[in-house]
Design goal:
Length: about 375
C-alpha cells in the first residue's frame, strides 16, 4: 500500500495535471470567444467561430469540475479557504464562464434579429475575456498568499477584501493569462477555419504569443527580485497529521525561485513556457497550424507547472498568519481517502480521455463559411 507521503505527492501532481488539462482544453475556447469581435467581421463569420467551439465547450469544462472535485476531496482545507476567501471572485467566474456563456451559445441564434445576435455575441466575448483574466488574478493571489488564518480549533477566518485581490501583481498575472489563452484560442481557430478568419486568428495569436513571452518573463523577474514568498523553517514531517499550525514559516523575497537550485530539473518547466510560446509564434502558419497548437499547449502546461514547481511544498500560503499556510504535507485528506480516490481516478480518468479523444475525432475538420451558410437548420450557433 502507498504511504501517506507518496499519496500526498501523487495528489499534488494529479491536481496540477487536472488544472493543466483545464487550461489546455477549456483555455482554447475561452481564447476563441475573446477573439470573436476581432476575427469575425459579419454575422456569417461570427457563426463560423461559434460553431468551432459550440460543440465542445461543455466537455472542456469537465476539467475544471474534476479539478474542483479533486481539491474538495484531496485538499479540504485548501478548498475551504480558497472558495470562501475569494468567494466574490469565484462567483464572478461562475457567472461569466458557467452561466452567461452557456446561455449565450444557446440563445444567440434563436432569433434572426441582428441587435439580438450582437448582444449575445458580446456576452460570448465577455464570457471568454473576463474568465481568462479572473483565473490569472486568482493564481496571482495564491502566489502572494491569501489573508486568512486558523484558530486553535482550526476554524478559518478571512480578513481580505475583493479590492485587495485586484493588486498589481495579480493583475499582471491576469493579463498574462489573457495573452496565453488568446494565443491558444487563436491557433485553435486557425486549425478549424479558413481564410479570412484563419489569417486574422493567426495574426492575433502571434501578437499574443509575443506579449506572453514578455509578460511571463516580467512576472518571473518580479517574483525573483521583489515579490515576498514563503519558506518553512526546520523540518516538516511528510507523514504527519493534517494540521497546518505545527510549523514555522518566514517571508522571504525570492523564496519562490529556491526550488530551481534544489531541483535542477525543474528549470525545464518554465523553459517549456517560453519555448512553447516562441514555437507557436514561429510555426503558426505551418500547414494546418496543428504543430503550433501543440507548441501552444506545451507553453500553457509549462506556465501552469511553473507555479506549482516554484511554490512546492506550499499549496496555499497565508499572508497574515504565516504558520497557517497550507502545505502538501499538512493539508490533505486521510490516507484511506486519498487511496480510494486514486483508485477512482485510475478507472475514470482514462474513460474521460478516451471519450474526449473520440469526440474530437468525430468533430475533426474545418468549419467553413459555405457549410454554415448552407446548413442553416443543422448548424445552430
Amino acid at each position: 500500500m502507498l504511504d501517506i507521503e507518496a499519496l500526498r505527492v501523487i495528489w499534488w501532481v494529479l491536481l496540477g495535471v487536472l488544472l493543466m488539462g483545464f487550461a489546455v482544453m477549456d483555455g482554447f475556447d475561452l481564447g476563441a470567444a475573446t477573439l470573436l469581435p476581432l476575427v469575425a467581421k459579419n454575422d456569417l463569420e461570427r457563426r463560423v467561430v461559434l460553431n468551432t467551439i459550440g460543440p465542445v465547450w461543455e466537455g472542456n469544462q469537465v476539467w475544471i469540475i474534476l479539478g474542483a472535485g479533486a481539491i474538495f476531496a484531496a485538499w479540504p482545507y485548501v478548498y475551504a479557504v480558497a472558495f470562501s476567501g475569494a468567494y466574490l471572485v469565484v462567483l464572478l467566474l461562475l457567472l461569466t464562464m458557467g452561466i452567461s456563456r452557456p446561455v449565450s451559445f444557446k440563445y444567440r441564434s434563436k432569433l434572426p434579429n441582428m441587435a439580438w445576435r450582437r448582444t449575445w455575441d458580446w456576452i460570448v466575448f465577455t464570457g471568454g475575456f473576463l474568465p481568462a483574466i479572473i483565473l490569472g488574478v486568482l493564481v496571482g493571489n495564491v502566489i502572494q498568499g491569501l489573508p486568512y488564518f486558523f484558530d486553535e480549533m482550526l476554524r478559518i477566518s478571512y480578513s481580505g477584501t475583493i479590492i485587495e485581490l485586484l493588486n498589481p501583481f495579480a493583475l499582471w498575472c491576469g493579463v498574462t493569462s489573457l495573452a496565453m489563452l488568446v494565443m491558444h484560442g487563436g491557433l485553435y481557430l486557425a486549425i478549424k477555419t479558413e481564410n479570412p478568419i484563419r489569417d486574422r486568428a493567426i495574426f492575433w495569436s502571434r501578437i499574443s504569443a509575443i506579449w506572453l513571452i514578455f509578460l511571463f518573463a516580467g512576472g518571473g523577474i518580479w517574483v525573483a527580485k521583489w515579490l515576498v514568498g514563503f519558506q518553512v523553517m526546520g523540518e516538516i514531517n511528510p507523514y504527519g497529521y493534517s494540521n497546518p499550525l505545527h510549523k514555522q514559516v518566514v517571508p522571504m523575497v525570492g523564496a519562490w525561485i529556491k526550488n530551481y537550485s534544489l531541483y535542477p530539473w525543474s528549470i525545464y518547466v518554465p523553459l517549456f513556457g517560453f519555448l512553447g510560446a516562441l514555437g507557436a509564434m514561429l510555426t503558426a502558419r505551418w500547414g494546418t497550424s496543428r504543430f503550433a497548437f501543440v507548441c501552444s499547449s506545451l507553453s500553457v502546461i509549462g506556465i501552469i507547472g511553473t507555479v506549482g514547481v516554484s511554490m512546492f511544498p506550499f499549496i496555499l500560503p497565508s499572508s497574515t498568519n504565516l504558520s497557517s499556510s497550507l502545505l502538501v504535507w499538512d493539508a490533505s485528506s486521510t490516507q484511506l481517502t486519498l487511496l480510494l480516490m486514486l483508485a477512482a481516478v485510475m478507472i475514470f480518468l482514462p474513460i474521460v480521455l478516451l471519450y474526449t479523444s473520440w469526440v474530437y475525432r468525430v468533430l475533426r475538420g474545418k468549419v467553413t463559411l459555405k457549410v454554415v451558410e448552407k446548413d442553416e437548420h443543422h448548424v445552430t450557433y
